[in-house]
Design brief:
The complex is a heterotrimer of chains A (338), B (318) and C (528).
Chain A: E1 16-27, E2 30-42, E3 47-51, H1 58-65, E4 74-82, E5 85-86, H2 92-98, E6 103-106, H3 120-131, H4 136-149, H5 155-159, H6 168-180, E7 186-190, H7 198-215, E8 218-222, H8 226-232, E9 235-240, E10 243-249, H9 250-255, H10 260-267, E11 316-318, E12 321-323
Parallel strand pairs in A: 3-8, 3-9, 6-7, 7-8
Antiparallel strand pairs in A: 1-2, 1-4, 4-5, 9-10, 10-12, 11-12
Helix pairs in contact in A: 3-4, 4-6, 6-7
Chain B: H1 3-32, H2 37-42, H3 48-58, H4 64-76, H5 90-125, H6 130-144, H7 147-161, H8 177-211, H9 214-221, H10 226-264, H11 269-279, H12 282-310, H13 312-317
Helix pairs in contact in B: 1-12, 5-6, 5-8, 5-10, 5-12, 6-8, 7-8, 7-10, 8-10, 10-11, 10-12, 11-12
Chain C: H1 20-29, H2 38-43, E1 52-57, H3 75-81, E2 86-88, E3 95-97, E4 100-107, E5 110-115, H4 129-141, E6 154-161, E7 164-169, H5 176-179, H6 190-195, E8 211-217, E9 221-226, E10 239-244, H7 248-256, E11 262-266, H8 268-275, E12 281-295, H9 306-315, H10 318-326, H11 356-365, E13 372-379, H12 382-397, E14 400-407, H13 409-418, E15 424-430, H14 435-443, H15 459-468, H16 472-488, E16 496-504, E17 508-509, E18 525-526
Parallel strand pairs in C: 1-10, 1-11, 13-14, 13-15
Antiparallel strand pairs in C: 2-3, 4-5, 5-7, 6-7, 8-9, 9-10, 11-16, 12-15, 12-16, 17-18
Helix pairs in contact in C: 9-11, 14-15, 15-16
Chain lengths: 338, 318, 528
């Protein structure tokens, strides 16, 4: 468990500041809005958890930050401020200098995330040589060191192997090595352990947090697993239907959720202490993208809904917290034992 | 590449049964073809007795299997026999003519690749645009265009109208390489349309598949330029597909060469086998079939070796 | 023809036509070229000695041994290499001296042939009576000889002088000299035969002809060079290169592109294409080859009834067949010979003309009021299929339906003639130097092409007469009667006589494809 979990990192300049990010995508039926006024920030060295159900827009947010969506079929609005620049305004060429060097991303499926026809060592070297003017020999050494740092035994031998001869866990380690080898300021980790065995998940998480600490990298940790967030993150945001619905310090949010959806998520965590009965779940379904309610998007499923919820909900502040619910002060939401 | 020598050795061993089956099939087909070589040898004004006599002299009256195994027995000691009509050694005949056909096939393959692969890449990187649609339609047409029709068109335009290229014939590549290429240009172009079409289509779809894969996303996330992603990673990943398809085209090119050789009066093995088959000149037909099977197998072997070099997944599975 | 022509009693027993040309030849023989008007000579382009003639032809000879081959196109190369004992006028087929200076029937079963002196084979060996005897024996005994049946009439052939050979015949045969103008008469060097393994000279021909063999790449190229030791006038050409290009249209393209000088054995289609090009000359000349159908009129065949056979003949529109299938270049009549040929009777040339009603009433008489179905064989190539379709369409108008089986030529012959399958075989045929041979090869009881192996009453007398009548005029009458007999009895279904078609550069002079499509290149010359 990360000893920094729960510590606040106030008073520092944001590393990444997302302001009113809107994303529309185009499919065969035309344009549809996928992210609506998403705003949050990441401080240097901070571990930010991003939770929500599948399809709530977590991955889309990540891909938007790195501008990895197909340009012809996506439209970004708002600002993504990073190192004084608005990434939304960057050209492709400028973005390619950011990616892998200042902001890295690792993905969920390690099995298919590496190019099968090059050795893992080469792929790490490639990243280095793309961003730094160093010799092949130097790159090689650094790549081997990177493999070593992720806990791979015989890193020199493994460097000459192809991805297909490595296990899922090893491939994810390679991905992490590759993502951190340039010592980026921010690492976006999109469900990095979901596809791995439970036993390995913890190892990888520890590795990630340890390395990030050493290289001084902030992590934006996308997951649907609240348990992991509770263990590893400083702050968290909850997303629902393309919007941020709650954000704040992890301990506080978990102890005292202010948004019904967050509370619902928390109470859905299987708890071995509740031995009997059905698994609690949030009734209803996420509204379809083309049929979003005008008002609170969670309204139809919320047991605390009132007529006023049919108005668009703005972000309200609660201390260092943000909530998208006008009833945040009145509601007493069930909490999970801290 | 520990697997490669093993793969080569295994292929060479596989060669034997393949050649036997292939030559047996060819032998049966020619045997079953209507027509009697004895009648052909005997000629228009021959009597029934004369035809019988010829049958005896050449051994056509023996059962088919006996004739086949007699032939096979000779092949094993390196004797491909003699033409029934010209009495020339089959091996000599083939060796004299094979270089022309191989030049034609290789030339057509290169022309096809030089035009087809870039077209495929272009279509894949401009997927969905008008250019992509144009390339895809042209590719479909290319498969449909008959080689002989295109050949005649090319000759009429570039040999008869503008005297830019010769209309007929071929020269030896070993003696006069530039001149040989000059003679082979129009035929090679006529022959290459199928290759262009198939390569363009397959490269396009293979590249699209590759460009849509997860690891491409990783590469972009690493900060590689799209050029580097396409040319280094994309192409390397489709290399195996491209090679395999090119290798398959070789088989197809040899059969299409028959027609192009007729249109351009090129004395290659295509011309040899079609003329001999019509005459039911068994030894020559068998000999050519044997040699072609060998050529095709070796081409496939080379393709597989190259595949293994380019794609570690292939090397591991050999 | 500028060839020296001995004024001799040739077989036909008549003097050469007293044309201006032969007069000139006569004066030339008397050494009087001075008498030829200078004007006449200046107008014609002067023959040039030199150059290599580039020939293209679609058919590869099976063999360059004249007695081992079989197809008429082989003669393109054969007559470059060999001389025959007796030659023929390219336009009339009138027999002419060549290696034989004269020939005469001492009695109906004895033919005495006098040979030319001072002739050598390409290998330097002398041409003489022994060589001829050796050759004739070889024709009769060599295992690969295809001319054995041509010489069955010969009982014995012996040298009766250093330059004289006598043939003893089993029975009278007036067509023997014509046979000596054919394959059997092309004399092969005995020395070359003796030196060859198994006596096989297929690939290394040695004759006495105007050109000598250099090389033969099978189905690709035949190279020949001038015979500087030729007994006659020296050939104009230095050499001949004959390329074999199987595709007819490609052959024409070679000429059009200037890569060849002359393309032989073309068809009507190439004529049409070549005519459009002002730089090449396309020529169609009469031919002894005609398109017909062999009929099986044996017992049990629907064609046994003469009325059915006649009906078929009345149903054809021959001028249309000629126009559609041979570009109008042949002869649209029912004769086996081209118009103007000495054995062709102009009176019966058009014995059958289109008369569908007559055809139908004949069928009705024969008991086929509702039409009749005939099983027919045909060749499988594109041109043959086209011919069959047009013929079928015309016959169908009269209620005669053809049920067609296409196959390769040799196979079609096999089915129809040996296995007796089907009633009719559509096929080109002909090309015999002597008309009596033509009849014999098709309608005699033993003829290969006679499927029924039957002779109709009256045939035998006429056939025998055609062979043992030696007087030209009388023989001609016999052959006229034979022509009538064949037509009245509708022994076959003639469609049209064809034409020999070549495409050449205007620089080629003196080329004559000849009535038999057996051209001689002796006097061909090439402009620079």
């Amino acid at each position: 468990m990360n000893q920094l979990a729960g510590a606040t990192t106030n008073g520092q300049e944001s590393l990444l500041d997302i302001q009113n990010l809107t994303l529309s995508l185009r499919d065969q039926n035309g344009w549809v809005e996928v992210l609506n006024n998403v705003s949050f920030s990441v401080k240097p060295r901070e571990i930010l958890g991003v939770v929500g159900e599948s399809g709530c827009g977590k991955s889309m947010t990540a891909l938007s930050i790195l501008r990895l969506l197909p340009p012809r079929d996506s439209r970004l609005g708002g600002r993504i401020m990073f190192n004084g620049q608005n990434l939304v305004d960057n050209t492709e060429s400028q973005m390619s200098r950011v990616r892998g060097r200042h902001i890295s991303m690792i993905f969920q499926e390690p099995m298919s995330a590496l190019d099968p026809v090059f050795t893992v060592g080469h792929q790490i070297e490639e990243t280095l040589m793309r961003h730094f003017r160093i010799s092949k020999k130097e790159a090689r050494e650094r790549a081997v060191a990177a493999l070593d740092s992720v806990g791979i035994a015989s890193p020199r031998h493994v460097a000459d192997r192809y991805p297909m001869s490595l296990s899922g866990g090893m491939r994810q380690r390679v991905m992490i090595a590759m993502a951190l080898v340039c010592e980026p300021q921010l690492l976006i980790a999109d469900e990095p352990t979901t596809a791995l065995d439970v036993t390995i998940q913890a190892q990888i998480m520890d590795l990630l947090l340890d390395l990030a600490d050493r290289t001084g990298t902030a992590i934006m940790f996308i997951t649907h697993n609240l348990g992991l967030v509770a263990q590893s993150c400083h702050r968290m945001i909850t997303m629902y239907a393309g919007q941020v619905v709650e954000s704040g310090n992890v301990r506080e949010v978990i102890a005292n959720p202010r948004h019904p959806y967050t509370a619902g998520l928390l109470s859905s965590i299987p708890d071995s202490r509740r031995a009997r009965g059905t698994l609690p779940s949030i009734p209803g379904r996420v509204p379809s993208l083309r049929a979003m309610p005008q008002g609170c998007r969670f309204g139809p499923r919320c047991s605390h809904a009132v007529p006023a919820c049919e108005q668009p909900q703005r972000i309200e502040l609660a201390g260092h917290r943000e909530v998208r619910c006008h009833r945040w002060e009145e509601l007493q939401l069930e909490r999970v034992g801290a | 590449m520990y697997g490669i020598p093993g793969m080569v050795a295994r292929r060479l061993v596989q060669l034997v049964p393949v050649m036997i089956v292939a030559t047996f099939v060819v032998f049966s087909l020619v045997y079953l073809m209507p027509g009697d070589p004895a009648v052909t040898i005997a000629g228009d004004y021959a009597t029934e007795e004369r035809v019988e006599e010829i049958r005896r002299i050449y051994g056509f009256d023996r059962p088919m299997l006996v004739q086949y195994f007699a032939w096979l027995g000779n092949v094993v000691i390196g004797d491909l026999g003699r033409s029934l009509f010209s009495n020339e050694s089959v091996l000599t005949l083939i060796l004299a003519r094979l270089p022309h056909t191989i030049l034609l096939v290789v030339y057509a393959l290169i022309v096809g690749a030089v035009i087809g692969i870039p077209l495929g890449i272009l279509a894949a990187t401009r997927q969905g645009t008008t250019l992509d649609k144009i390339i895809t339609s042209v590719a479909s047409l290319g498969v449909a265009v008959p080689n002989f029709w295109l050949g005649i068109l090319l000759v009429t335009l570039f040999s008869l109208n503008y005297r830019w290229f010769p209309a007929t014939g071929a020269t030896s590549f070993f003696e006069e390489p530039a001149k040989a290429l000059y003679f082979a240009t129009l035929p090679a172009i006529a022959l290459s349309t199928g290759v262009v079409a198939v390569l363009a289509r397959q490269v396009r779809s293979a590249l699209l598949e590759v460009l849509g894969s997860q690891y491409i996303r990783t590469l972009r996330a690493k900060g590689l330029s799209s050029g580097s992603i396409l040319w280094k990673h994309g192409l390397r990943n489709v290399a195996a597909t491209m090679l395999t398809i090119a290798g398959l085209q070789v088989n197809r090119l040899f059969s299409s060469a028959v027609i192009v050789e007729a249109v351009f009066a090129i004395p290659g093995v295509g011309n040899l086998i079609s003329y001999s088959a019509l005459n039911k000149d068994f030894p020559v037909v068998q000999g050519v079939a044997l040699v072609l099977v060998l050529v095709v197998i070796f081409t496939n072997l080379i393709v597989d070796v190259l595949n293994a070099i380019f794609d570690p997944r292939v090397a591991a599975s050999t | 023809m500028e060839e020296k022509k001995d004024v001799t009693t040739n077989f036909y027993g008549r003097l050469p036509n007293l044309t201006r040309r032969s007069l000139m030849a006569g004066t030339a023989a008397l050494g009087g070229t001075l008498l030829v008007p200078a004007m006449a000579r200046a107008q014609a382009p002067q023959p040039r000695t030199g150059g290599t003639l580039r020939v293209v032809m679609p058919y590869n000879p099976a063999s360059l041994d004249p007695i081992a081959g079989r197809n008429n196109p082989d003669f393109n190369a054969l007559l470059m290499l060999y001389d025959a004992l007796i030659s023929f006028d390219p336009k009339t087929l009138e027999l002419q001296p060549m290696l034989a200076t004269s020939w005469e029937f001492a009695d109906p079963t004895t033919l005495v042939v006098k040979l030319r002196e001072g002739v050598e084979f390409h290998d330097g060996e002398p041409f003489n009576a022994d060589a001829v005897v050796f050759h004739i024996d070889r024709c009769r005994n060599y295992e690969k000889s295809n001319v054995k049946s041509d010489l069955t009439v010969v009982e014995k052939c012996e040298a009766t002088g250093p330059y004289e050979v006598t043939f003893k015949l089993k029975f009278p045969d007036a067509s023997l000299p014509a046979t000596l103008a054919d394959r059997a008469g092309c004399i092969v060097s005995p020395a070359s035969v003796k030196a060859a393994e198994g006596g096989n000279v297929d690939r290394n021909p040695v004759g006495t002809g105007p050109f000598k063999f250099v090389e033969w790449q099978d189905n690709t190229l035949i190279k020949l060079v001038r015979n500087t030791n030729y007994w006659g006038d020296a050939p104009y050409l230095d050499a001949i290169e004959a390329r074999i290009i199987n595709e007819h249209n490609t052959a024409v393209r070679a000429v059009t592109a200037g890569e060849a000088d002359i393309a032989l054995n073309m068809s009507a289609q190439q004529m049409a294409v070549a005519k459009r090009d002002p730089n090449v000359v396309a020529e169609a000349t009469p031919s002894m080859i005609y398109y017909s159908a062999f009929l099986n009129y044996g017992k049990g065949s629907p064609l046994a009834d003469v009325r059915v056979r006649q009906a078929m003949n009345w149903a054809l529109d021959r001028p249309v067949l000629n126009q559609v299938l041979w570009g109008g270049l042949g002869g649209g009549n029912c004769s086996m010979f081209p118009s103007g040929f000495w054995a062709n009777d102009p009176e019966t040339e058009n014995y059958y003309t289109l008369d569908v009603d007559r055809a139908k009433s004949l069928l009705k008489e024969a008991g086929f009021a509702n039409g009749i179905e005939i099983e027919t064989h045909t060749w499988a190539d594109q041109a043959a299929v086209q011919r069959q379709e047009v013929v079928s369409a015309q016959l169908a108008e009269a209620g005669i339906r053809l049920k067609v089986t296409p196959s390769q030529p040799a196979q079609a012959m096999q089915f129809f003639l040996n296995e007796k399958k089907g009633h009719m075989l559509l096929s080109p045929t002909g090309g015999n130097p002597d008309p009596a041979t033509a009849y014999d090869r098709h309608f005699a009881a033993t003829a290969y092409r006679n499927a029924a192996k039957l002779e109709l009453p009256g045939y035998r007398e006429l056939a025998d007469a055609s062979l043992n009548t030696f007087d030209f005029a009388a023989r001609q009458q016999v052959l006229y009667k034979m022509q009538r007999f064949v037509l009245e009895n509708a022994l076959h279904l003639p469609q049209f006589t064809s034409a020999g078609i070549i495409v050449r550069s205007p620089k080629v002079h003196n080329f004559d494809f000849s009535l038999l499509q057996r051209p001689r290149f002796h006097k061909v010359w090439l402009e620079a």
